[in-house]
Amino acid sequence: MKKILICLSAFLIGQEKYDVDWETVAKIREEGFQRSEISNTLSYMTDVLGARLTNSEDMRRAQDWAVKEMKRIGLTNIEIEPFMDYGYSWDNQYFSIHMIEPDYQTMVGYPIAHTPGINGRQKLTVVRTQIKTKADLEKYRGKLRGKAILATPPPKIDQERYRNGTPRYTDEQLKEISEKPFPKAPRGPRPPVNPDLVSSEERNTFFKNEGVSVILESKSGWIAAVRGFARPGAKKDKWDRKGTVEHLPIVAITPEHYNRMIRIVDRDIQVKIEVEIKTKIGKNRRKARNVLGEIVGSDKKDEIVMLGAHFDTWHASPNASDNTSGVAVMLEAMRILKAVNIQPRRTIRIALWSGEEQGLHGSREYVNKHFGNPNDPEVGQKDGYENFSAYFNQDYGPGQYRGIYLQDNEHVRKAFTSWMKPFDDLGMTTIGSQSVGSTDHIPFDRAGLPAFQFLQDRVGGTGGHTNLDFYDTIPIEDIKKNAVIVASFIYHTAMLDEPLPRKLKLNVNRRIK
Asked: Are residues 396 and 297 both part of a single domain?
């Protein structure tokens, strides 16, 4: 009997440790659902600010706005913090492309980042190339000068995506996620590179030496979607001006327009296009920057709870789903907490990251500078490491939160189970044990710091990393719910007697995809 009482007492203490402040949750829900500003915030970022390529002039303008918005909300200690040399800025100023022979058609495309413009409007003959190996290069030597090159294979359009849509998680699928207690298997070593294959950089250098005018490509399997990133080699030369200016222009084309040109050329019928590209390339190297703001704590103000989302995007659209919606959620969560006048014990800090799309650079450099990484001898542990409590992230689209991933940290299960209870009615019911990756909680996690990504519903109709990612595709009710939930999680984390527990062991060598 005594043993039973001891166990019961321990259970009750554990429950009390992570109790829900129902009165504050009610205030958060009321503010977030009845007086939400998230649609206005999202609209301004997507409609007025637009795309925000890391280190671009567009990004600088958006970061200036973010500072003003944080001041309006009532945050303090607002800062734009440089984090690393990010080369030269790049902005697209104008672009148009048309097929003019054998038929006229306005085509949909976009220049790849960190490539140069074209002198004026040019009319070019289109040639298809099929290059995989170094031997293939010889077939085209001396035949490409002044041409526009169809450089990639014809993309296959995913018609199932349009027939079936993108369904939200079913109860069975959520149950399956919750019942996977084991870590994902680590990724194996990459296979050796075949020396006979031609890399994108080698292919483009060949085109440059042969006098090609423009490279055309299509790597999207979505109807009407342009999917393109940065020039091959830009990351290696750290977005160097010379590398950009001396490269050929590259234009990504929507798959149905690209494939039309391929089919015509394969009939031995000449295709001609008219193209114009204007870009602005910076004159000096400069650092990329993150934006931060705080609600200062009280008796534990030196301890930090963080929330964040990456502010940078690719450049073909405002990227409403990836990740402007996440930024809007985190700003709205901070606004809600200020509006209900919470007095947190710990300092709550929001971070709007840059450089995520190119490799989590902003969050990684921030963690290294402020907290350190005891698992990396070159970085080491910094003074702020022990004062860090937790980081919460959004970057899996605009779908509503259906739960949260533990990131293989079973020690926070009780806390998260308790804090989800007020949101059962919103479908926030699932805890996934496993680690998930590829976004800004990862640098924290690799340093052994508690960091989490919410489990979000899949949402159809959004076009992340494409020209189709606009305000109109975002389910506003979903992101309203997300802002309320994250505000509550942040509040409860900031009010604990002790920081959220950390993993007992961290396998720092395990690569997370």
From this structure: yes
H or E stretch including 113?
none
Same domain membership, residue 488 and residue 398 = yes
Gap between the Cα atoms of 482 and 231, Å rounded = 35
Locate 304 and state its tokens. Answer: 């930090």
Q: Are residues 271 and 326 in the same domain?
A: no
In a domain, 483, yes or no: yes
Spell out the per-residue pLDDT of the chain, length 513, in tens: 544 444 444 444 445 789 999 999 999 999 999 999 999 999 999 999 999 999 999 999 999 999 999 999 999 999 999 999 999 999 999 999 999 999 999 999 999 999 999 999 999 999 999 999 999 999 999 999 999 999 999 999 888 777 777 788 898 888 888 888 777 777 778 888 888 899 999 999 999 999 999 999 999 888 899 998 999 999 999 999 999 999 999 999 999 999 999 999 999 999 999 999 999 999 999 999 999 999 999 999 999 999 999 999 999 999 999 999 999 999 999 999 999 999 999 999 999 999 999 999 999 999 999 999 999 999 999 999 999 999 999 998 999 999 999 999 999 999 999 999 999 999 999 999 989 989 999 999 999 999 999 999 988 777 889 999 999 999 999 999 999 999 999 999 999 999 999 998 644 444 433
Identity of residue 230: A
Report yes or no: 431 and 404 within 8 Å, Cβ to Cβ: yes
Which of 218, 244, 279 is the endpoint of a domain?
279
Same domain, yes or no: 214 and 172? yes
Residues 273 and 318 in one domain: no
Which domain range does residue 363 map to? 21-86+286-495
What is 391-450 written as a DSSP string? Answer: EEE--S-SPPEEEEE-TT-GGGHHHHHHHHGGGGGGT--EEE-S---SSTTHHHHHTT--
Work out how many domains the chain is built from and give that number. Answer: 2
pTM of the model: 0.93
Helices (H) and strands (E) in the chain, counts: 15, 18
Number of Cβ within 10 Å of residue 10's Cβ equals 10
CATH number at 130 reads: 3.50.30.30
Residues 436 and 462 in one domain: yes
Q: Residue 430 is part of a domain; what is its CATH number?
A: 3.40.630.10
